[in-house]
Amino acid sequence: MTISDYITIVGIIVGAIGIIVGVIGWKSLSTANKIRNQASDINNSTIQQAQTITVNNGLDNYAVIKLSKETTMEELRKIICQLNENENRITAVMDQMEKAPKLYVGKEEPLETKSGDVWFQFLD
Q: pTM value?
């Protein structure tokens, strides 16, 4: 056997491997396209299954809507209560800050001071 015979054999083997890999790639691409095309059908069936489960649990569409509204209103009440509590806390902190002595820094004496305030004067 000569070198050209070996090169021919290697070329045939590489070609066969290329054909096999190409067929596998084509099958994978074909399967991926089928899955993508069926995605809308899967979404529709999921919605239908969810509606069936809701009815099977004893709730019709009206009951689901009413339950969701009541749940939302209850959650809003809780949020409003938390906001009111936070507002009361902020007001209390602001009241404490109003009562705390204030610090003033400057060359001239501040006009609006109260007992307990501190003034630092800069001298030239």
A: 0.36
* Three-state DSSP state, 106: strand
* Tens digits of residue pLDDT in 65-77: 777 777 788 888 8
H helix intervals, the chain: 3-37, 39-56, 61-99
Neighbours of 88 (CB within 10 A): 10
Question: How many whole angstroms separate alpha carbon 17 and alpha carbon 10?
Answer: 11
Q: Supply 20's token pair.
A: 């096999």
Q: What is the mean pLDDT of the segment spanning 97-110?
A: 85
Phi, psi dihedrals of residue 108, rounded to the nearest 5°: -105, 150
Three-state secondary structure call for residue 36? helix
- Residue in the structure block whose two tokens are 């409003």: 80
Please tell me the distance from the alpha carbon of residue 84 to that of residue 78, in angstroms, as a whole number: 10
